[in-house]
Design goal:
Elements lengths: L9 H9 L2 E12 L4 E4 L6 E8 L2 E4 L5 E4 L4 E4 L5 E4 L9 E2 L4 E6 L2 E5 L9 E11 L5 H5 L4 E2 L3 H4 L1 H15 L5 H22 L8 H6 L1 H12 L7 H8 L3 H12 L3 H18 L5 H7 L5 H12 L3 H6 L2 H11 L1
Parallel strand pairs: 1-10, 2-8
Antiparallel strand pairs: 1-11, 2-7, 3-6, 3-11, 4-5, 4-7, 6-12, 9-10
Helix pairs in contact: 4-5, 7-8, 8-9, 10-12
Length: about 325
């Protein structure tokens, strides 16, 4: 992923990364002897990060494309999906589920995984992270990303990134107090570097509202909406952000994003509401107030219209709720 001059203004690129965070991070330090094939994808809705500490390794992407990853290569699969790490590029290379490898807990979020095969030469070493990739109100950007984001020259142009990856490996091996928290923070920064590299390339050939971000005037409108989604915005106020008439603004916004400004605002609010309810366990009344709804009934109607079910149902089936229930009965 070669870094080219940005086609998105610096302040808007920063806005894209402002809400980035990782949730539920779990890492594996994987040491295996060739020949091998390791299948990933047990968490299809989570991103997957791989760093090759000793290679080479061949990545077969969810779309079936083979990528060679040499030593020190790093890759992010922002949407995860079923994929494999292979010792060769042969399409018939047999694979085993990564979960079947013998594993030892190095710390609560890091497991050391190894095969039981006889070592014939140098063993392959990969550091992997499974994570929930959360961009907050900008979450729809994830769908615009390529399925595989190869770091490439990013490591050469950002030498501090290599030091961070080395630190992640060291922390995964050392059962020291705070290792899990340090790893989570390092992973957050490394992921931000990778995503920032893509943003600085202009987000590839992504279209839709990413195209709006490339337009400095229209991008200002999107940033204003994302910074203050609870405000009672009018088309006139949004047009003023763009310094244009209401008709010109509304026509341009619809042409680029595929929806009206107020429809975009409603969907943004509901994306945020879903995250706050399911992930952060915020009370429904609090979420409705933060998003500018004067009554719980009005918020619930809007939520059901966009999400397809009432906010109470989303909270009842949130992953955190089920996890907490299991913990309380253990």
């Amino acid at each position: 992923m070669d870094i080219q001059p940005s086609t998105i203004p610096h302040d808007l690129a920063s806005e894209l990364l402002l809400g980035m965070r990782l949730v539920g991070v779990q890492y594996r330090r994987i040491e295996v002897s060739p020949p091998f094939g390791l299948a990933f994808g047990e968490e299809p809705e989570r991103a997957q990060f791989h760093f090759v500490a000793r290679g080479p390794v061949f990545l077969r992407s969810p779309g079936g494309v083979i990528h060679r990853l040499d030593t020190s290569a790093a890759v992010l699969l922002p949407r995860g999906g079923a994929h494999q790490l292979l010792s060769s590029a042969q399409p018939e290379q047999p694979c085993r589920d990564i979960a079947t490898l013998s594993a030892t807990e190095l710390c609560p979020t890091v497991r050391g995984c190894a095969d039981a095969g006889v070592c014939q030469g140098e063993r392959t070493l990969v550091f992997s992270g499974c994570m929930e990739f959360d961009l907050g109100g900008m979450q729809s950007l994830v769908a615009a990303m390529p399925e595989v984001m190869l770091v490439g020259t990013l490591l050469n142009s950002n030498p501090e990134l290599r030091a961070m990856l080395d630190a992640m490996e060291r922390e995964s091996l050392a059962p020291r107090a705070g290792s899990a928290g340090i790893l989570a923070r390092l992973a957050d920064v490394v992921s931000a570097f990778i995503v920032r590299g893509w943003v600085e390339c202009g987000c590839g050939d992504a279209s839709g509202w990413v195209e709006a971000l490339r337009d400095p005037r229209l991008g200002k409108v999107l940033v204003a909406l994302h910074r203050d989604p609870g405000r009672q915005w009018t088309v006139a106020e949004l047009a003023a952000q763009m310094d244009s008439s209401r008709s010109v603004f509304a026509e341009r916004f619809l042409a680029v994003t595929g929806m009206t400004p107020l429809r975009y605002l409603t969907e943004l609010r509901m994306r945020l509401a879903a995250q706050w309810l399911a992930r952060d366990r915020e009370p429904i009344e609090s979420v409705a107030y933060k998003l500018g709804y004067g009554s719980l009934a009005a918020f619930s109607r809007a939520f059901k219209r966009v999400v397809g079910r009432p906010p109470g149902a989303l909270r009842a089936h949130a992953p955190g709720e089920s996890r907490n229930a299991k913990e309380s009965t253990a």
